[in-house]
Amino acid sequence: VKTAAIVLAAGHGKRMHSKVAKQYLLLKGEPVVVHALRAFEKAGMDEIILVAGADEVEFCKRNIVEQYGFTRVRQVVAGGKERYDSVRNGLCALKAVGFAEDGIVLIHDGARPLVNGEIIARAVDGVREFSACVASMPVKDTIKAADAEGFSASTPDRSTLWQIQTPQAFRFGLIYRAYEKVFAPGTDRSRITDDAMVVELMTDTKVKFIEGSYSNIKVTTPEDMIIAEALCAHRVQ
Ligand code: CTP
Ligand code: MG
Q: How is residue 184 annotated by DSSP?
């Protein structure tokens, strides 16, 4: 079966407080999103869709896809207001080129430059076995829920808690239909933060956790760039 990756780079990166959107900040001299794209290119995905800000599509075609020679990035499409809008645009772009229902699609944050071939392979295998899976790792910190006044309300058992990363990987037909449903008029999308949630809310398919990596961080706040630089320097590949 065919494999595809949707790499998301249409956010504004507000929490990074940088002039340039975080996905274009340089890591070892190359934009963050280039590191992410290279992992999927190297992994031999049949098709890569890059989702960029509406004003950055042309920039990405020239200065990312052409400049770095990504031959598997077939389309650069415009994203939307929220992450789920951007994902939907990527899914529609795959639909438009006739990507098969039983094809495997990996959805990845362009702000996770340290994804690697092992994680990608586990995600692809995870879909073969379970139809839906997400890269994840056990949480290291204790997680508590707060009440409205900022007092501790509860402490879920840490051994049941996982931090969720990307890639999030699915049979194409499953994720496409789940997104169609969640975009039906009247559906409340305000709490949706990842793709697994869309499948959890809109289908009966259970989402399997597969092993990500503690290095597979999402650059979100300024200190994450320092951590990513350090991790990049120690990378064995
Ligand atoms: N993303 C996207 N389209 C959006 C929002 C986010 O493609 N409308 C992408 C981002 O570019 C990023 C990934 O989704 O690669 C994860 O989102 P996040 O870390 O929240 O990035 P931003 O939304 O850009 O950052 P912030 O929330 O701090 O503004
Ligand atoms: Mg965001």
A: S
